[in-house]
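Page 47, continued from p. 46.
Same chain as before, 71 aa.
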Amino acid sequence: MATQIKLETGGSVWRVLVAQGDQVSEGQELFIMEVMKMEVPYDAPVSGRILALNISEGDVVGEGMVALEID
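Result:
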């Protein structure tokens, strides 16, 4: 079953550090959000492969959105 990475708050996607199909390790930084002029990194909670990547750099996104899925 895939692990969904949901956004904790709205903001803009500053940097995406992975691509669909990439293999990632638990704790690896996946992307960085800009929220109220602060950088908020999101790390992989599990190891696996990026199954779906639903964000791009520069996107303005909302709280609760599924940014990516790891299988």
